[in-house]
Amino acid sequence: MTKLHELYHEQGQSPWLDDLHREWLTGGHLHHRLDQGVRGVTSNPTILAKAIEATDVYDDQLSSLIDEGRSIDEAYWEMVVKDIEDALEILRPVYDESAGADGFVSLEVAPSLARDTDGSVAAARSLHRRIDRPNLLVKVPGTAEGVPAVRQLISEGHSINVTLIFSIQRYDEVMEAYLGGLEDHLAAGATDLSGVRSVASSFVSRVDTEVDRRLERLAGDAEEGAAQHRQLLQARGGAAVAQAQQAYQRFAATFSGPRWEYLAGKGATPQRLLWASTSTKNPEYPDTLYVDELVGPDTVVMRPAVAYSLVARTITQRVGGLRLSHARPFLEAAAQAMGIGRLRVIETGMSPHRSSGTEGARRAGAQAPGAQWAGAQWDDAGNLLVLRPGTVVSYERNTLTNARLEEEGIEVIRVPGSELAGCRGGPRAMCCPVGREPASMPDDATHAALSGGGGASLAFGRRVAVGFQPWSSMSQVGLRAVTRS
Questions:
Q1: Are strands 463-473 and 459-460 parallel, antiparallel or unpaired?
Q2: Helical packing angle, 72-97 and 59-67, nearest 10°
Q3: How far apart are CA 41 and CA 91, in angstroms?
Q4: Theoretical Cys-Cys bridge with 305: which of 19, 45, 67, 401, CB 3.0 to 4.6 Å?
Q5: Terminal C-alpha separation, the chain
């Protein structure tokens, strides 16, 4: 059982993946993700467009559609619908096993419809007719115009993912649209509400992005070093979690009481909160900030896959300054730089949703040194040393990562490793020398520079460090000192 399985079975939170592209469907990767504990998938036009740009697996279908006289827009939707239908088939066992609670694949209406109520309703109806699967969620933006569209679609029995929710006020409106839509569905003659499902996607990190920007602007107006200046800066990074926790309280209050109990008696299920945009945008914040603090029953957490969302730009010198090129998919740019056709991404083990360092500090009632930044130590593919193409050195405890690499034909040379230190025992630590010739130092030397992990000698007076000595593993490297007579 993985950490994601524990997250669901012990905490009642469903991990969904915020990514989808055809290579995952044809190469078995999505099956692998489900084995690891993922219980749903979402997509959006940006994700799908990047997947089409970053790989060549869509080229044949795209060429065929264009040859048939299809427009670019028509060709796009044909390719998207195929991917969604294939993903729905893969996720269907999860949907059946969970009695319709999970196993969903989300597909968003065109972004141009965000301010068009009637257009959103028509597009969502069309997608549900075209992809007639019970585990499809059509995403409708939670704009002022989107909320009445949600109520109308729910009243017709469609399952909806209400996306792009940023405020408590809008979240209240979305919950009311869901309840009102269910009541309208009953009034229209429905007797069983169990087939109508919905999630409300609250975008977490973007709240901090906006609030932090305002706090920093206010702090800039205050006297530097003054109490108000410090308080404003210290308040950064707290608004998003606080608002999300308040939203969860609203969720618990709304889906209880006589009104809800009546609907539940007709088979209705709660509109679960989905924590979206959970990757931190500020590099100073812990990577798991929006994951650790928002674990709770009857919620969904999105886990983004970053490889296909990265972009690369070229910086060139020109008269008067630097020129920044247009963004290109990172995998495409990296492959070109290395002189190969394209890069193949091997998905490896997923990090636990909570870091042991942070949890340990909480139990102790204090912040352990470095615990704020402690991440998953194993199975994150970060601690690898490439010896040559197709051969890597990896810690033996990287069980899932090592297995996935070997499945893809990579030779894995395993080495022992204990708990990793703050440097995380990465490639630099793994290739540190374990011994070297004594350093040549003048008699009157009183000091020398020590470069962490680089292997420089250190001398204090006539004591000289002459090499490295491993303590308990290759990830913890100590200095062996001798005294010159």
A1: antiparallel
A2: 130
A3: 8
A4: 19
A5: 58
Q: Are 191 and 266 in contact (CB under 8 A)?
A: yes
Check: CB of residue 161 under 8 Å from CB of residue 137. yes
191 in Cβ contact with 264 (< 8 Å): no
Cβ contact 381:401 at 8 Å: yes
Cα–Cα distances in Å, from 402 out to 98, 240, 391, 431? 31, 36, 11, 19
One-letter amino acid identity for 109? V
Whole-angstrom CA distances from 247 to 12, 65, 179, 197, 200 are 17, 45, 16, 19, 10
pLDDT of the residue at 357 = 35
Q: What confidence score (pLDDT) does residue 244 get?
A: 97
Fold for the domain defined by 3-306 = TIM Barrel (3.20.20)
Structural tokens at position 162: 């209400």
Question: Which neighbouring-strand residues pair with 316?
Answer: 323
For 319-341, the pLDDT digits (tens) are: 777 777 776 767 778 888 888 77
- 387 CB-near residues (< 8 Å, 6+ apart): 393, 413
Radius of gyration of the chain (CA): 27
User: What confidence tens digit (pLDDT) does each residue in 64-106 have?
Assistant: 999 999 998 999 999 999 999 999 999 999 999 999 999 999 9
Domain chopping of the chain, boundaries: 3-306, 433-485
Q: At what angle do helices 168-187 and 239-254 cross, to 10 degrees?
A: 20
The 3-class SS string of 416-452 reads CCCCCCCCCCCHHHHCCCCCCCCCCCCCCCCCCCCCC
- Report CA torsion sign: 380, 384, 390, 391: negative
Q: How far apart are CA 319 and CA 325, in angstroms?
A: 15
Whether 170 and 230 have beta carbons less than 8 Å apart is answered as: no
* Geometric angle at alpha carbon 235, from 232 and 239, rounded to 5°: 130
Residues of the chain with pLDDT under 70: 54, 304-311, 327, 329, 342, 347-382, 417-426, 428, 432-485
In this structure, the strands spanning 272-276 and 459-460 are unpaired
| Residues with active-site annotation | 139
Count the residues in the chain.
Answer: 485
Partner residues linked to 328 by β-bridges: 312
Which pair of tokens denotes residue 102? 């999970």
